[in-house]
Amino acid sequence: MRALVIVPTYNERENIRTIAGELLADPEIELTIVDDRSPDGTGAIADGLASEHAGRVTVIHRTGTRGLGRSYVDGMQHALTHSDADLICQMDADLSHLPADLPRLLAAAADADLVIGSRYVRGGRVVNWPKRRVLLSTFANRYVRLLTRLDVRDITSGFRCWRRPTLEQIPLAGLRSDGYAFQVEMTWHAGRAGARIAEVPITFVERRQGKSKLSGRVIAESVLLPLRLAMRRLPGNRARCTI
Ligand SMILES: Nc1nc2c(ncn2[C@@H]2O[C@H](COP(=O)(O)OP(=O)(O)OP(=O)(O)O)[C@@H](O)[C@H]2O)c(=O)[nH]1
Ligand SMILES: [Mg+2]
Fold this sequence. Notes:
By secondary structure, the chain is α/β, with parallel strands linked by helices. It contains eight helices and ten strands. The protein has an eight-stranded mixed sheet with strand order 3-2-1-4-7-5-8-10, with helices on both faces. A two-stranded parallel sheet has the order 6-9. Helix 7 packs parallel to helix 8. The chain starts with a strand and ends with a strand. The site of guanosine-5'-triphosphate has 19 residues, from strand 1, strand 2 and helix 3.
């Protein structure tokens, strides 16, 4: 199966070449970089990669308001209209998501509609995160699980593979959330659509280069979105989840 990997970037100059090189080592993979006018020149490096790997690397240069959720939506809409890849994946540029783990996600998509790379299933690991980040992430996942009733251990993970027909069912244009909440909202829609959701263990490594974009606004949104979803929840909408 052919896969397209969407990598959103904002100031990832030190990382983008490495991740692109590792992903493109697999001839079945194409890459879409969604850059938000990074002041550090990531967009120009991405353009260079697109000319070096013509036909396999696409760059979307966003204009207007910067945002991770909007970047994913733009990348996904572009993928659905311009590529015929069977699987559409999402990964961070900062090498926290290891390209070496991707083949297991792709393989799991044989029996699932959405595969989530999970830190919190057996075999999953987090490397070099300070204790407070682990606690925040663990708490966030419990909180979201309680409110949404989605039986997913790592619902905020941004390392995912979607089967094309499942992604086509998600109302991308209507999504409003941006940070971790974006991953939650997408999972919620997948569950509603009856998608088979699988989690496969990954090793998540704290970024070594560049800066985190985690903000207070992103955390506030992550608190509010599950409440909004809980209010919209209807009986019988639980996702079927296989681990
Ligand atoms: N296009 C775009 N990409 C973004 C934006 N914010 C973050 N990103 C990218 O999204 C991915 C995840 O962002 P990170 O800053 O690593 O956020 P995080 O993984 O939640 O936090 P840390 O790993 O702790 O730094 C990275 O590839 C970023 O470059 C944005 O506003 N627009
Ligand atoms: Mg990161």
